[in-house]
């Protein structure tokens, strides 16, 4: 392993807590669950998502507004308009929001509207972008590259931390393999290894790993059993109508059920799932 001076664990108990808001922190005793659609599509979609998730033990909302799509002809995201929707939701529901930053030029704008910057798989080794989010004043969710080794992943985190931002969460989201049956292969071995070698929190994205909604609940429970500090899961009010990643989107009801099913697994491995303490907000 190359020298990860800053993110390597120096003793077994060392762990970093990453703060998304005053109430929500990843890396402590409580499992943090982030839910929401692949892509922000309109305000009413995000209202539906927040209305459902605020009743469950979901602490943060996701939604992409700058989307890394395989085809240049596919919907590329709502951009600033989508950020304004995320801002409305985070204020109305008092839930932090996570969204992807694809370019250095987007960082300032996204920092004004979101609580956590996601670096997508395709950008895990975009070193200039890593250096730039290293200078941002927001926590970073760093997704593992499509075919990145654990060492490359750890060193990508080292880039961010070495540029001044210690608030980094690692996200295992599946790696490329030969078998198209699952979109990617969820590497739970990496989750265990990353928890052993770094002090950073590790979350699992079973949605992009599986690519199929019917696999997500079991993978989520497996991830928590392996020591993950949280989950990021895609869900949508009308999964089949999702503009991106429809096949892996859970319905909001399935998402709420999944979250409930995490609790006994979390408790079995000495973790908690925080029940929502928030005042429920009404849709506008
Ligand atoms: C996403 O979170 O919607 C996404 C594009 O993820 P990844 O970068 O892991 O493919
Ligand atoms: Mn997606």
Number of domains: 1
Count of DSSP strands: 11
Beta-strand share of residues: 5-15%
From the helix content, strand content and strand pairing, which structural class follows? alpha/beta
Low-confidence stretches: none
Defining traits:
TIM Barrel; 9 helices; 33% helix; binds manganese (II) ion
Describe the structure.
- By secondary structure, the chain is α/β, with parallel strands linked by helices.
- The protein has a single domain (about 30-275), classed as TIM Barrel, CATH 3.20.20.
- It is about 35% helix and about 15% strand.
- The chain has helices at about 45-55, 80-95, 105-115, 125-135, 150-160, 190-195, 205-210, 215-225, 250-270; strands at about 20, 25, 30-35, 60, 95-100, 115-120, 140-145, 170, 200-205, 230-235, 270-275.
- The strands form 2 sheets. It has an 8-stranded parallel beta barrel with strand order 3-4-5-6-7-8-9-10, surrounded by 7 helices. A two-stranded antiparallel sheet has the order 1-2.
- Helix 4 (about 125-135) links the parallel strand 6 (about 115-120) and strand 7 (about 140-145).
- Helix 1 packs parallel to helix 2, helix 4 crosses helix 5 (about 150-160) and helix 8 runs parallel beside helix 9.
- It starts with 17 loop residues before the first strand and ends in an 11-residue tail after the last strand.
- The model has no long low-confidence stretch (mean pLDDT about 95).
- Manganese (II) ion binds next to loops.
């Amino acid at each position: 392993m190359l020298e990860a001076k800053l993110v390597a664990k120096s003793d077994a108990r060392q762990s970093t807590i990453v703060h998304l808001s005053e109430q929500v922190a990843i890396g402590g005793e409580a499992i943090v669950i982030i839910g929401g659609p692949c892509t922000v599509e309109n305000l009413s979609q995000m209202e539906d998502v927040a209305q459902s998730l605020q009743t469950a033990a979901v602490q943060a909302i996701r939604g992409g507004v700058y989307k890394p799509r395989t085809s240049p002809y596919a919907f590329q995201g709502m951009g600033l308009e989508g950020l304004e929707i995320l801002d409305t939701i985070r204020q109305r529901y008092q839930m932090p929001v996570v969204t992807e930053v694809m370019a250095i030029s987007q960082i300032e704008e996204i920092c004004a509207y979101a609580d956590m910057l996601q670096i997508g798989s395709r950008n895990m080794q975009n070193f200039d972008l890593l250096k730039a989010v290293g200078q941002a004043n927001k926590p970073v969710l760093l997704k593992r590259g499509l075919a990145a080794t654990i060492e490359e992943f750890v060193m990508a985190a080292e880039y961010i931390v070495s540029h001044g931002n210690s608030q980094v969460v690692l996200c295992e989201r599946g790696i490329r393999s030969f078998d198209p049956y699952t979109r990617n292969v969820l590497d739970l071995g990496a989750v265990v290894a990353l928890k052993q070698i770094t002090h950073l929190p590790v979350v699992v994205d079973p949605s992009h790993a599986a690519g199929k909604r019917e696999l997500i609940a079991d993978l989520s429970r497996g991830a928590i059993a392996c020591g993950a500090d949280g989950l990021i899961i895609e869900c949508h009010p009308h999964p089949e109508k999702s503009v991106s990643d429809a096949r892996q989107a859970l319905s909001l009801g399935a998402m709420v059920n999944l979250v409930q099913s995490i609790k006994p697994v979390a408790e079995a491995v000495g973790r908690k799932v925080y029940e929502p303490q928030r005042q429920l907000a009404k849709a506008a």
